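User: Teach me something about this protein's shape.
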Amino acid sequence: MKRRSTRRRFLGQAGLGLAGLGLAGLGLGGLTILPSARTAFGFAANERLRLAVFGSMYNAQHFLVAAHTYSAEITAICNVDQRKIPAVLKMWGEQADKLSASPKPEDRLAAQRYAEMAERKGVIIADDVRRLFRESAERIDAFVVSDYDHFHGVACGAALRAGKPVCSERPLGFNIGDARDLRSLAAEAKLPTTYRSPGTGVGQFRRAMELVEDGVIGPVKEVHVWLDRGGPDRDALPSGSQPVPAGLNWDLWLGPLAWREYHPDWMSYSHWRETCSGGLGVFGMHASIFPFMALALRQLWDAADAEITVEAECSRRNRVSFPRWERVRWELPARKSMPPVTIHWHHGPGLAPGSRELIRGRLQQFGLADANAADALMASAGSMLIGTDGALVGNDHSTVITALPKEKFEKIETNRPQRIPATQGIYKDWIDACRGQKPHIIAGFDIGGPLSELLMLGNIATQFDRRLVYRPKTGQIVGDDAANALLRYKYREGWTL
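Assistant: First, the predicted structure itself:
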């Protein structure tokens, strides 16, 4: 399917000359290009945004069955674990059945396309993201990523180098080095980027940012972020080997990671420091984006002399897995008119010891005296900004912001932003940006990179019995070779961000 010369070019051209850089002769994994079919949609061909999807989780799963709602279509799906493809085909078939019964003509046309895809028609099914962009970049306008953490950097990097906008899963990359490199690459490419951060696409979130900036809750010097779950705290890495299941390309699943024999335990999600970012990567990104943005913490990455200190206490120092409970404390310097602030992360089953009582006490200070009401506000995960004159509490994905004390905000608008541009949601804003429009995207890579760094710094702190000092401008921990060694890892030969 060659791009016609008359096709509208939605995307910027920066980075196109880098497509396939360093991949020649690497002996890449298999790629199946299936028979092409003409689009069944009723829109002009040059109005369709062609999406490639890596993985099938979260934001990837969303686009796999909702692409038509954005006047887009899926042209490729990439998954190193081809055992997951039948489930995707089944989803497409079910979506075809559902839409075929719709009274809307556009839905019925979309149903035809999903039915074709369910039969493997007109869609590329790949297992190697590098080869996908090397051989089929001209069939892709934009790229969606959602899989294991260690894939995020190489998948996003491949897309950006091929000149494609990216919608990634959180966190941005797998470690601090990944996050910094992806931020830099996105800045060079000048393409629309975002990561899955639902709160940033909600009016309450944007209005709460304004309330903090306007001083409605007073200066904020204390923040709490929590996750009621707990780490797996595994004792040892998987040992021994087992036969690789049919349909799984183990070499590709490892991707940039050092080689090791196949063992199914390696694929346990969020269990191993070697393959993921733990609770801080899973829900820390969602819950902490609110304080990160409201308190203008991104400014620290541009300040030459800024230093962030971090220290952690946890159930035990576990270098291979994540502790059962952990409490991390970051101290961050002043930003313009905002004072220094301390951020506390509480993670564990029922939160870390003493954390629930501490946060209940803070909520009580702002009129929420009932313990059950406090626990309801603290359900699963969230954040709390404590000002001298009020508090703002975000839910697990920062999509709902509760202002306290309630009587203070009875006559204050808390749902719609007054200065920050409105949003149509994180996915619609990104799609519009891919088409050349100018939506106000908060969670771009320029924000997701520094936030990922901050949280991954917490993961490093849980491995040491000492206070660490981090300079965000340079991306280095001061005077600590052992801690600095954990900032990034060496990619396996044949892989690059």
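Now, about its shape. DSSP finds 14 helices and 16 strands in the chain. Confidence is low (pLDDT under 50) at residues 1-45. If you'd like, I can walk through any region in more detail.
User: That's plenty for now, thanks!
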